[in-house]
Amino acid sequence: MSPLRSTIAPMTITFGTVALDAADIKGLANFYTSILGWEVRDGADDEWITIADPANPEAAHISFQLAPDHVAPTWPDNSVPQQLHLDFYVDDIDAYEKEVLAAGGTKTGMPTEEGANWRVYLDPAGHPFCLCWHY
Q1: Cβ-based neighbours of 85, under 8 Å, separated by 6 or more
Q2: 43-96 pLDDT, tens digit each
Q3: What domains sit in the chain, N to C, each tagged with a CATH number?
Q4: Rounded to 5 degrees, what are φ and ψ at 97?
């Protein structure tokens, strides 16, 4: 007996966006466009904003969805779980940290061990994200 074979053509899947809930989506979109150098895509409205890399507009992007009752994560204590976090790879964490803080991000002080290759921050809505050394 021969093994069963699929008659369905191979499918393709591509990651498109990650959506973050926030009460102030315009403010959060402004924070991320500031630190990433990205731009708001067409079709932004009061309930949904998407930003993308203008140099690579077909690549994955970040969206912001209106959640008027959004409660910021309390990570690391998890009273309100983080639910997700984003990692951004940079060539110089110290230099980039200045940009993040100037744009309204908050340094968490994590990790606490010396020599770690990443640092954790909170965006203005409280979502954690990491700056990681680019390998």
Answers
A1: 75, 120, 127, 128, 129, 130
A2: 789 999 999 999 998 899 999 999 999 999 998 888 998 888 999 999 999 999
A3: 17-133 (3.10.180.10)
A4: -55, -40
